[in-house]
Amino acid sequence: MANGLPNPLLTADAARSLVDSVDAFLFDCDGVIWKGDQLIEGVPETLDLLRKMGKKLVFVTNNSRKSRRQYSKKFRALGLEVTEEEIFTSSFAAAMFLKLNNFSPEKKVYVVGEDGILEELRLAGFECLGGPEDGKKNILLEANFYFEHDKSVGAVIVGLDQYFNYYKMCYSCRYASLCIRENPGCLFIATNRDPTGHMTSVQEWPAGAGTMVAAVSCSVQKEPIVVGKPSSFLMDFLLKSFNLETSRMCMVGDRLDTDILFGQNTGCKTLLVLSGVTTLPELQDASNTIHPDLYTNSVYDLVGLLQQ
Amino acid sequence: MANGLPNPLLTADAARSLVDSVDAFLFDCDGVIWKGDQLIEGVPETLDLLRKMGKKLVFVTNNSRKSRRQYSKKFRALGLEVTEEEIFTSSFAAAMFLKLNNFSPEKKVYVVGEDGILEELRLAGFECLGGPEDGKKNILLEANFYFEHDKSVGAVIVGLDQYFNYYKMCYSCRYASLCIRENPGCLFIATNRDPTGHMTSVQEWPAGAGTMVAAVSCSVQKEPIVVGKPSSFLMDFLLKSFNLETSRMCMVGDRLDTDILFGQNTGCKTLLVLSGVTTLPELQDASNTIHPDLYTNSVYDLVGLLQQ
Questions:
Q1: Distance (Å, rounded) from C-alpha A175 to C-alpha A180?
Q2: Looking at the annotation, which residues of B are catalytic?
Q3: Which domain holds residue A284?
Q4: Share of chain A above pLDDT 90, in %
Q5: Where on this chain does Mg(2+) bind (chains A, B) (predicted)?
Q6: Which residues neighbour B301 within 8 Å (Cβ) at sequence distance 6 or greater?
Q7: A198, A287: one domain
Q8: Range B262-267 contact pairs with CB under 8 angstroms and sequence separation of 24 or more
């Protein structure tokens, strides 16, 4: 911990020293780059400055609602030039996890989640069930109702899903249970476990992907494999794509239990920004056990501090 | 444990000794008395015999979908004479918990659940929001969406809800969070935490009340107050209604982690029946830590054994 303090504020000296000691900045998106569809102040200037200083920029998000391609489009719509290759999403991570584990393309994947997961799975050559389509379906507790299920389902992926309903809850629990109990080798994967999120610009959203994961996990009495932050799975992919060392990276995020923990788990330096879900009192609360190397209000502070 | 064995089978001797040593039998319903709308074989004969022997019969169910009045109607429809006063449901328990804790009738209760909870709350004089009605509502992650909430909500009750959707998930998490963080003294109550259930006659249902409770609990990062089994809360009410001693009661159920644990928590004798969710291999599995005093296939076995 810099300065020997548990949670040191980013100063001009600390900013210069940080920039000198890293080759890459990894940014979380929700609450760091944007809130919903609104860019956070000073983000373009900050990214420009860091690129000019020769830093590699990478964007690592637990939000599985979009694919890498869709996020790249969103960046461009907000006036930021970011390529697909610079973006690592938990939707992409889920597809890559299946690929890495030699998941048979003849099996199907049941998805609680949105288009981002479906697109990444299809790009990776996998067939899906569920997704937004099942949000229109109903299930009712009626006599003699029987769950028809597709025996070729070999994995369940659970991510954030605004179309979540009792139908999907039952089917995801059913498939997860089948996968775990009747079909060894089958997979129960969570994109991430964020309990809440900043999905729109106005306020914190109460139900993050973690709530859906908790529901399925309760039914099957088993914990999922988590591929998003704070799991180090995404870092393995990132390191395959770029010639970088984690000790010369800085993870910048607004969540202690995902972003900062991910940075710490993978050996990065860590910078907490207060522009998203974490407040200063929460950071400084005695019950908090996750301490970033540095904290500041928002990424824009880097510009001011580096120009002092 | 009878016979010194970890899980002794009910024999003719054990059945006679059990009946001699208790004044009341407490029966779980789903998987013991019925499956969905279908009576389990031999239940009428068993209840008749026990009543003739002077035993008090009580029905204790975690299924919050109906009120006591609605359950009494269901018993009658199945040809069984059971009064409302003999029925203790987790929906009733939730309403009684509010009453016992002097919950102000001027505050409102947000309900994830069905008619049973709404009816018990109204009978107890409380006003509700949510319930099946909110199952028709949608919420979409759109820019500038803001959660309008009723500031008079002072408790959230979560039970089994076949109309569960993302709207209810967000609102129950939001209200639970408001209750816990911004309004000390507010209550987050779960009717029960059964991960799965036997809601219809054909098969186990993958998503019990526990899945919805787990989702809300994940969002607010706090455990709820549980009023159904295995919590002893229902027993307190039962003892107020009847002049009985728990050491002279036998709890009969199909679930180890709710029924048998409830019996053990409250000092009852316990009889597991295999007519519901628990299988003999599960009972005898080395990982199982909950051992009933006795087990048998179904309640009907009592008739055969007592007549030997």
A1: 8
A2: 28, 30
A3: 2-62+229-306
A4: 78
A5: 28, 30, 254
A6: B10, B15
A7: no
A8: B262/B60, B262/B229, B262/B230, B262/B231, B262/B232, B262/B234, B262/B235, B263/B26, B263/B292, B264/B290, B265/B230, B265/B231, B265/B232, B266/B232, B266/B235
For residue A68, give how far its alpha carbon lies from the nearest alpha carbon of chain B (Å). Answer: 19
User: What is the mean predicted confidence (pLDDT) over B63-75?
Assistant: 96
**Rounded average pLDDT over B157-164:** 94
**Measured between alpha carbons, how far is B204 from A230 in angstroms, rounded to an integer?**
34
Nearest to B234 by CA among B118, B104, B63, B55: B63
Q: What is the C-alpha separation between B63 and B259, in angstroms, rounded?
A: 12
Rounded-to-integer distance, Cα A278 and Cα B302, Å: 59
Same domain, A213 and A233: no
Q: Enumerate residues 6+ apart whose C-beta is below 8 A from B217.
A: A214, B190, B223, B224
Q: Which domain CATH number covers B263?
A: 3.40.50.1000
d(CA A157, CA A225): 9
Strand order through the sheet with A108-112: A127-130, A108-112, A153-158, A187-190, A225-226
Summarize pLDDT for A249-264 with one digit per residue, the tens: 999 999 999 999 999 9
Instruction: Record the tokens describing residue A216, joined without a space.
Output: 């399925």
Does B235 lie in the same domain as B112? Answer: no
Half-sphere exposure of B216 (CA within 13 A, CB side): 36
Instruction: Give pLDDT tens digits for A5-53.
Output: 577 999 999 999 999 999 999 999 999 999 888 999 999 999 999 999 9
Instruction: Tell whether B286 is within 8 A of chain A (Cβ).
Output: no
pLDDT tens, A149-161?
Answer: 888 899 999 999 9
Q: Which of A226, A242, A270 is the last residue of a domain?
A: A226
Please write the tens of the pLDDT for every residue from A170-191: 999 988 888 777 766 679 999 9
Number of residues assigned to chain A: 308
Considering only the C-alpha atoms of chain B, give the largest distance between any 2 of them, rounded to a whole number of Å: 73
- Look at residues B226, B258, B280 and tell me which one is the last residue of a structural domain: B226
H or E segment and range at residue A214: helix A209-220
Domain count, chain B: 2
Relative to beta strand A38-39, strand A34-35 is antiparallel
A115 noted as active-site residue: no
Could you tell me if B261 and B232 are in contact, meaning their C-beta atoms sit under 8 angstroms apart? no
B144 touches chain A (CB under 8 A): yes
- If asked whether residues B200 and B237 sit together in one domain, one would say no
pLDDT single digits (tens) B237-275: 889 888 899 999 999 999 999 999 999 999 999 999 999
Mean pLDDT score of chain B, rounded to an integer? 92
Backbone angles phi, psi at B9, to 5 degrees: -70, 145
**Tens-digit pLDDT profile for residues A263-306:** 999 999 999 999 998 999 999 999 999 999 999 999 999 999 99
In a domain, A33, yes or no: yes
Residues of A in contact with B139 (CB under 8 A): 162
Closest in A141, A208, A213 to B200, CB measured = A141
Residue A87 lies in a domain: no
Could you tell me which residues are beta bridge partners of residue B295? B9, B272
